[in-house]
Write a structure and sequence with these properties.
CATH class of chain B: Mainly Alpha
Number of domains of chain B: 1
Oligomer: heterodimer
CATH superfamily of the largest domain in chain A: P-loop containing nucleotide triphosphate hydrolases
Largest sheet of chain A: 6 strands, mixed
Strand order of the largest sheet of chain A: 6-9-10-3-11-12
Number of domains of chain A: 2
Number of helices of chain A: 19
Order of helices and strands of chain B: HHHHHEHEEHHHHEHHH
CATH class of the largest domain in chain A: Alpha Beta
Strand content of chain B: under 5%
Structural class of chain B: mainly alpha
Distance between the termini of chain B: 20 Å
Shape of chain B: globular
Largest interface: A-B, 44 and 34 residues
Strand order of the largest sheet of chain B: 1-4
Radius of gyration of chain A: 24 Å
Strand content of chain A: 25-35%
Chain lengths: 502, 325
Amino acid sequence: MDDVILKIDHVSKFYPGVTALNDVSMEIRKGEVRALVGENGAGKSTLIKCIMGVEKPNAGMIRMQYNGEWIVNNDALEAQSHGVFANYQNVNIAPDLSIAENYFLGRQPQNGLFVDWKKMREESQKIIDKFEMNVDPKAKIRELPLAMQAMVTISKISVNDDIRLVIFDEPTALLENEKVEILFRFIRELKERGVSIIYISHRLEEIASICDTVTVLKDGTYVTTGNVADIQKDELIHLMVGREMSDIYKIDHQKPGEEILKVEGFSDSEHFRDISFTLHRGEILGFFGLVGAGRSEMMRALNGVEKHLCGKVILKGKPVHIKNPTQALSCGIGFLTEDRRSDGCALQLPIKTNINMNSYDMISKLGWINLKQETARADKYSKSVNVKTPSLNQLVGNLSGGNQQKVVIGKLLCRQPDILIFDEPTVGVDVGAKQEIYKIMESLIAQGRGIILISSYLPEVMGLGDRLIVMSQGRITAEFDHEALQTLTEEDVLKKASFESR
Amino acid sequence: MENRTAIKRNSAIKTMATRTEFTLSLIIIALFLFAFFFTKAFGSPYNLTNLAKQGAIIGVLAVAQTSVIITGGIDISGGSIAGLGCMVMALLQTTTNMPFPMTVLSCLLVCVVCGVINGIIIYDLRVPPMIATLGTSTIIRGIVKLLCGGLNVTFVDERILSIGTNKLFGFLPVLTLFWIGVAVVVLLLLKYTTFGRNLFVIGSGIEVARLSGIKVRKMHYLVYAFAGLLYGIAAVMLAARVGMAQPGTGEGYDMNAIAAAVIGGASLAGGRGAVTGTILGTILMVLITNAGTAFKIDPYILDVTTGVLIVFAVAMDMLKSRKKA
């Protein structure tokens, strides 16, 4: 087995409350294009971080063959000096520098003491031409559209001379079809040069067209590896999920009641335009869109977090103009944001404070808090969403992702909202907690509340939603009612969500 | 498994939180006893009263600082604001016929206004708190010097001076009572009011606070204005202690106040801090200088010691938060 370049040996990685990787072993050969598939939370990203040396495994070892010797990369810099590169979304480019500067970051061509700008631009132009990007090398990254930024991160890899292993983490999430072709051309070229590739994607058809072999991870454990040619797509899905898809998403739906929210012609200056939809009591309304589709921005504006330019919002028959989150809360809208750690919960504070955070006015007189009620409410609402903790004084930062999310939901419920907006509620949450969150949603609609569920994970919105709205580039491109959802395939939805369907 | 690790972590955090205050108390008691029994100067009633007075002004400023630090901010303009309040009061008392209580109120009002201006610069102009208050501190110090033309203004009113010299029951200086009063009020505010709770939430994450319906702008004005009010009280105490308003009144107090809060366990990253810790931090700082003098240790060495203590306290804080992340 001389041509093995990367050996992953019984690797495990634990985070507080979550086992991200459990005894995973696999090998990658020289010139192999290996697909890594699994659900969100299967451990793919953690494995990548371990390979890059960014995270240390708690058990096991990852070694790579470098000029005949087996070595361990202790950090990303070391990994890169050994020819290992990873393409994450937007993390390895400096937004305020130009494309050329980003290409040659830390290795600028020198002209004596000074940077040889001319040479740098010429070299950059070559790369830009090769990837058919059609931009000025002097353009600042920040001013480029997201798709072009993604292309810069991909093409940046080709600047390096010594490339041995390249990891692509969802490289096509933002790309248009023709750009995907350019990416594939690049991957084939690397492969011919004997470079090994690890390719992570949710899009199984891409894997079929570019990868040689595929490894399936599930809930942090290794499932199997096989040749792409030998595995059917359905089989792959089954291996990834390992349970009947319908099970986890099976919740009792309600008959939709009266209309509680109507949005008409909602627009802001750049992220979303002319959004109209309605929400009824007892209904889960799914919102799907790729990254940059504008769904989160739209929901933030709806809650008064950001500004909107025009549009009508009618709450239970009454037009309202929501200017700030405080007002949204008092209107009976509860908003669970996409980024739990930065704007969902206060990690340094105890569960008790977190749950009562948005409703202290309800349990205080002239600013004085009734401490008994504070504890009682924290107890009631943390139990109602089943937060697992020994004490209400536990700091939220010490809870697992799923429990943190439940605390946030508990906080929202304190104000008894009629409308709940859940933006990516199950990101970074393990499967068990995921199912619990779905159960909470089930009980919430049973109480006659309406839920808007935003997710970039299709099975989730398709499995849970009573209706589904698809957004692309800031506009609604499709709406599917309950009947249509029954026969809908993921491909149908993706087509509506992708860029050309404008 | 999840539960068990959670319990373990919880008890660990609890001991850590109590440990700052526990360790501080031990050090203070040890240092106190050591100085009391091994030097003559330290244990004298005069010195002990002096010790209680020395701590009072830094103590009040440190408590103000704690409430700001909890929000993730910092305020290095406290000394200058107190200096301005002191100067305004002195000028009003010496050059106008304004009744005494009104001069004190004017002093407090000026300080509160300065605080609100800090809040506006920090929240609305988005200037980082350190730079914003560095700026206002310099501006205010300049105004103080303009007002007095660089000269000292001596208080003539007996009532001000009596605050500085009077003692309750013959041993407890009135200045110390001010400190205790302020500390108790802030302690209660932090524990029992929405104001206090909101400070912690803002310090823990400003977006979290905003999305939870906390009026973040108002809270910024409020906390810096509140700190301003406490600086006003410190201004009265400074006036009482020194008996005059000087161009440099209040200078050099801010760093000590910040140090006391940080030694007491307040985190400059926000979201953490307690009045009890800050009080102990203040006592320890004052005690080191005072006991050191009693031992006839070179005051420069004492400066070095205090500096080391500050670095050590902040390093411990960083270590703790890194462990958590």
